């Protein structure tokens, strides 16, 4: 079976044995202690089991105590089972992704340049390996030498080859993917067991799973509610005694369990794990549960232009001179500045100059010269020749400043040339020799298809999109208009990107950033949700808290949807659970006091068979509602493109009202069924 088939395969049936074993293991006291609501139910179970023989011995209804004990045990098992089921689904998916990594071999590069054959699991972070055409890449890493086309279907399920290359924003490679052409030297980026996927698997597995901040907040709230109800039930005893009613402990335990929020308490972990699993299924690797959750509340999305909104393969298309400068001189100087420029921009300038018949002898002028590499801070690159000439190319405003600092003037038609090139979205790179600006090179780029629709969808979700680019304002506005972003910032340095994120955050907004370059890394780390492309540089993947295996910036929409779905599902089930408990109160309280206080009969709105059947029906309903809602907790509420507030309000109404009303007919039905057997 090919990797593609593997990834597209429908999920296999569930390992029932594994789920049941997980449910039973979940009964361990140290695990139950993490879930206060279920811990109380577990203690109630023990109490009722303990009271059973005493009740039998005293000639009371021991069968009732035993039945309640068994129902409470089932309640706890349904909760631990829900968690175990969610975990097994997550693990099954991650396992399928990881499978290919199993028996990989590697050619590890030694200090003397030779290679030795090792197994992939012996590779450490920082090791270098050589991979040639036809081989599988043994570990996640960064290409440090070479370029190659790669089949990434093992991780993405997509078999179209992609180009990955050293020194670009596309230098990231994944274990298990196949090199189709050429050869690469790769620097391993993770120790065994610490790869992205390993970390993701740990997040769905019980032992290492941490509660997210909002999960923790909700848990505390549920624990407080449980405490309040515990006090209410315990203080019932002296109050009842005061009016001459003797209360049954089993009845009180049943009342307590029905009142505390067992439904949400039981399903809370499963909801969180299901969110992680949905992210994984979308090929989004989250480094924390928090990242998935935050994605649902994002207000602002920042994107860079080149490679994110556009295809990023900028090609030189024209050498445009300023004033009286001969076109060939612009070409020749641009060629010299690009001889040692490894960026796609630099190489495409060499290509175009060569196509236009540049004299190859010219490169001899650069013998012994010092080259200046492109940096996002200076936005310049170039060469200082031995003859004393300094040649530069770069962003138009950066070149203008460079020339002015040397006492040069700006050609009168400079802005005109730049504007002509920029108007339809091309990037202008100005070329200068010493204090003279010679002209401008046009680099054309193509906007990704379908991106405007994605931005429209984000807008419907209430998310503002801002493009930030190192490019000039005219190019930026042309691309921004076509792509349909809400706002743009041009001539931005990496510091400016970082500052913008901080500004947005300071005004209380949650910011997402999508990027792939090393210069995006600080911004990816600062953003609340940093989504890196798996094709991106190691620095970017390291700084982000989510990585897209498909390297598709549009994937942010899926991340937002998954996050929203998680938040809304959790909200809906919390509402449902609390509303539900109100109804059970009206079943049990009359049952508790019915014999002594006929006046309480007005509360007995359902006219149930007997106090015993009423309590059994309520506890049975309380238990069964947990497995009944597992599919809902795992699948999640469907979220259309709408803001979280709208979704939450709508769900509050549906699940609040539903939760309030459903128990009445359900308990009535169960009561009638139980009455048949008693
Ligand atoms: N190799 C290069 N040599 C000189 N100047 C360059 C080179 N590559 C890009 N530039 C100039 O520097 C500017 C900033 O480039 P950079 O790649 O840092 O942009 P960015 O901040 O990543 O944003 P975007 O990805 O949208 O371009 C470019 O708009 C271009 O004018
Ligand atoms: K309950
Ligand atoms: Mg860039």
From TrEMBL:
GO MF entry, a single one: P-type potassium transmembrane transporter activity
Compartment list: Cell membrane; Membrane
- Which parts of the sequence belong to the P-type ATPase A domain? 107-205
Quote the PROSITE patterns the UniProt record gives.
ATPASE_E1_E2
Among Gene3D superfamilies, the record links this protein to: Calcium-transporting ATPase, cytoplasmic domain N, Calcium-transporting ATPase, cytoplasmic transduction domain A, HAD superfamily/HAD-like
Query: So what does this thing catalyse?
Result: K(+)(out) + ATP + H2O = K(+)(in) + ADP + phosphate + H(+)
Domain of life per record: Bacteria
Question: Which Enzyme Commission number(s) are listed?
Answer: 7.2.2.6
**Record-listed ATP binding positions:** 341, 345, 374-381, 393
Its predominant location is: membrane
Q: Which UniProt keywords apply?
A: ATP-binding, Cell membrane, Ion transport, Magnesium, Membrane, Metal-binding, Nucleotide-binding, Phosphoprotein, Potassium, Potassium transport, Translocase, Transmembrane, Transmembrane helix, Transport
Where, by residue number, is the active site? 304
**Looking at the UniProt record for this protein, which Gene Ontology cellular component terms does it annotate, in alphabetical order?**
plasma membrane
Q: Name one Pfam family in it.
A: E1-E2_ATPase
Q: How does it sit in the membrane?
A: Multi-pass membrane protein
- Its EC top class is translocase
- Cite the InterPro entries for this sequence: ATPase_P-typ_cyto_dom_N (IPR023299), ATPase_P-typ_P_site (IPR018303), ATPase_P-typ_TM_dom_sf (IPR023298), ATPase_P-typ_transduc_dom_A_sf (IPR008250), ATPase_P-type_domA (IPR059000), HAD-like_sf (IPR036412), HAD_sf (IPR023214), P-type_ATPase_bsu_IA (IPR006391)
Q: How does it assemble?
A: The system is composed of three essential subunits: KdpA, KdpB and KdpC.
Family per similarity comment = Belongs to the cation transport ATPase (P-type) (TC 3.A.3) family. Type IA subfamily.
Q: Which HAMAP family match?
A: KdpB
Described by its record, this protein's role is as follows:
Part of the high-affinity ATP-driven potassium transport (or Kdp) system, which catalyzes the hydrolysis of ATP coupled with the electrogenic transport of potassium into the cytoplasm. This subunit is responsible for energy coupling to the transport system and for the release of the potassium ions to the cytoplasm.
Recorded hits in PANTHER family, A to Z, give: POTASSIUM-TRANSPORTING ATPASE ATP-BINDING SUBUNIT
Write the protein's name: Potassium-transporting ATPase ATP-binding subunit
Q: What is the lineage of its organism?
A: Bacteria, Pseudomonadati, Pseudomonadota, Gammaproteobacteria, Oceanospirillales
- In the UniProt record, what gene is named as encoding this protein? kdpB
């Amino acid at each position: 079976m090919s990797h593609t088939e593997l990834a597209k395969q429908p999920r296999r049936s569930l390992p029932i044995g594994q789920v049941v074993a997980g449910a039973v293991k979940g009964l361990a006291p140290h695990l139950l202690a993490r879930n206060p609501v279920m811990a109380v139910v577990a203690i109630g179970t023990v109490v009722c089991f303990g009271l059973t023989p005493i009740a039998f011995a005293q000639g009371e209804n021991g069968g009732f105590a035993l039945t309640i004990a068994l129902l409470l045990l089932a309640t706890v098992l349904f909760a631990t089972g829900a968690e175990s089921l969610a975990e097994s689904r997550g693990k099954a998916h991650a396992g399928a992704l990881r499978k290919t990594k199993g028996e990989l071999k590697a050619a590890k590069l030694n200090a003397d340049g030779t290679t030795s054959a090792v197994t992939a699991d012996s590779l450490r972070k920082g090791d270098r390996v050589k991979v040639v055409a036809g081989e599988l890449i043994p570990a996640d890493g960064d290409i440090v030498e070479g370029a190659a086309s790669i089949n990434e279907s093992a991780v993405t399920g997509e078999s179209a080859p992609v180009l990955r290359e050293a020194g670009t924003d596309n230098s990231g490679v994944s274990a298990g993917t196949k090199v189709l052409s050429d050869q690469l030297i790769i620097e391993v980026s993770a120790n065994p067991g610490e790869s992205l996927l390993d970390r993701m698997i740990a997040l769905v597995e019980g032992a290492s799973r941490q509660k997210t901040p909002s999960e923790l907040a909700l848990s505390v709230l549920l624990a407080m509610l449980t405490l309040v109800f515990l006090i209410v039930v315990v203080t019932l005893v002296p109050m009842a005694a005061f009016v001459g009613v003797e209360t049954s402990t089993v009845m009180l335990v049943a009342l307590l369990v029905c009142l505390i929020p067992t439904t949400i308490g039981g399903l809370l972990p499963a909801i969180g794990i299901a969110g992680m699993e949905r992210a994984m299924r979308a090929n989004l690797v989250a480094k924390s549960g928090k990242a998935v959750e935050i994605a649902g509340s994002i207000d602002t999305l920042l994107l860079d232009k080149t490679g994110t909104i556009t295809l990023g393969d900028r090609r030189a298309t024209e050498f445009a001179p300023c004033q009286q400068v001969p076109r060939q001189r612009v070409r020749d100087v641009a060629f010299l500045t690009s001889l040692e420029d490894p960026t796609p921009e630099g190489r495409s300038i060499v290509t175009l100059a060569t196509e236009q018949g540049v004299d190859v002898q010219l490169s001899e002028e650069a013998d012994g010269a010092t080259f200046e590499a492109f940096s996002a801070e200076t936005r310049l690159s170039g060469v200082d020749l031995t003859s004393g000439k300094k040649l530069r190319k770069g962003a138009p405003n950066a070149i203008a400043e460079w020339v002015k600092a040397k006492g040069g003037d700006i050609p009168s038609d400079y802005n005109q040339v730049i504007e002509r090139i920029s108007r339809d979205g091309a990037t202008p790179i100005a070329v200068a020799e010493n204090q003279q600006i010679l002209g401008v090179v046009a680099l054309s780029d193509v906007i990704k298809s379908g991106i405007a629709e994605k931005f429209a969808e984000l807008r419907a979700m209430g998310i503002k999109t801002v493009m930030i680019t190192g490019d000039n304002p005219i190019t930026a506005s042309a691309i921004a208009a076509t792509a349909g972003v809400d706002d743009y910032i041009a001539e931005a340095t990496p510091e400016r990107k970082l500052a913008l994120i901080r500004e947005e955050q300071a005004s209380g907004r949650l910011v997402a950033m999508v990027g792939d370059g090393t210069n995006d890394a600080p911004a990816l780390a600062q953003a609340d949700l940093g989504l890196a492309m798996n094709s991106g540089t190691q620095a970017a993947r390291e700084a982000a808290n989510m990585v897209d295996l498909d390297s598709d910036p549009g994937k942010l929409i899926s991340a937002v949807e998954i996050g929203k779905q998680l938040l809304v599902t959790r909200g809906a089930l919390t509402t449902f659970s609390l509303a539900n408990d109100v109804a059970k109160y009206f079943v049990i309280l009359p049952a508790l006091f019915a014999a002594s206080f006929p006046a309480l009969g007005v509360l007995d709105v359902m006219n149930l068979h007997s106090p015993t059947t009423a309590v059994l029906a309520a506890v049975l309903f309380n238990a069964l509602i947990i497995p009944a809602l597992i599919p809902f907790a795992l699948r999640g509420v469907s979220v259309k493109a709408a803001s979280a507030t709208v979704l939450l309000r709508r769900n509050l109404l549906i699940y609040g009202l539903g939760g309030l009303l459903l128990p009445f007919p359900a308990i009535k039905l169960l009561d009638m069924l139980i009455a048949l057997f008693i």
